[in-house]
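Sequence design from tokenized structure. All designs in this work follow the same two-part layout: the structure record, then the generated sequence. An example of the structure record is given first.
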């Protein structure tokens, strides 16, 4: 299953929880300075447009979190009960 397929299978009512946890990982990351500027701009644009809970927004957050904190994002997704999504990003 691709990341996109896994994200689209998440019920809308559960997306906020994932979004908040991914934001926490990203914003607290010590590696944030390694984030390419184009991804940072896309992240900020989606945040301003309130689109982070959309499939595109969650996919972006997952890709950023995977880039910055690969082990932590897999652990967090498994912890939240999203094993399919964790598996889609390479966590099992």
């Amino acid at each position: 299953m691709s990341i996109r397929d896994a994200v689209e299978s998440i019920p809308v009512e559960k997306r906020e929880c994932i979004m908040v946890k991914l934001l926490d990982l990203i914003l607290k990351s010590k590696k944030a300075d390694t984030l390419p500027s184009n991804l940072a701009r896309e992240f900020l644009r989606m945040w301003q447009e309130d689109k982070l809970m959309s499939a595109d927004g969650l996919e972006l957050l997952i890709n950023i979190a995977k880039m910055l904190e690969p082990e932590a994002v897999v652990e967090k997704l498994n912890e939240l009960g999203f094993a399919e999504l964790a598996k889609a990003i390479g966590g099992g």
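Residues 3-88 form one domain. We note this feature because it recurs in several other targets discussed in the main text.
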